[in-house]
Write a structure and sequence with these properties.
This protein is mainly α. The protein folds into two domains: about 1-45, no CATH class; about 45-85. About 75% of the residues lie in helices and about 0% in strands. It has three helices and no strands. The protein is flat and about 55 Å long. InterPro entries: GGDEF_dom, Nucleotide_cyclase, Rev_trsase/Diguanyl_cyclase.
Length: about 90
């Protein structure tokens, strides 16, 4: 039988996971900004607020959310590419 983690350990896991994601975000953002600067290009940071995404994540899992976000990014990329070619 698997013994559940104490609440303090669960909180510690949540915080360390969030900190790891934030650290990765900062590193990737810094790299992209440096690359844009070196290429003399603009850089944009996009935050998506998709209605119901938390519910989907909680019920269907991260894999489904990742597919939704990926498809949304692809659709936006096609839309922007169409605008750029006009």
């Amino acid at each position: 039988m698997v013994k559940p983690l104490p609440v303090a350990d669960l909180i510690k896991e949540l915080i360390s996971g969030a900190l790891n994601h934030f650290r990765e975000f900062k590193i990737e953002t810094a790299m992209q900004l440096k690359l844009a600067h070196r290429r003399e290009k603009f850089c944009c940071l996009l935050f998506l607020d998709i209605d119901g995404l938390k519910h989907i994540n909680d019920t269907l899992g991260h894999e489904v959310v990742n597919r939704i976000v990926s498809r949304r990014q692809e659709a936006e990329g096609r839309r922007q590419k169409g605008k750029a070619s006009l």
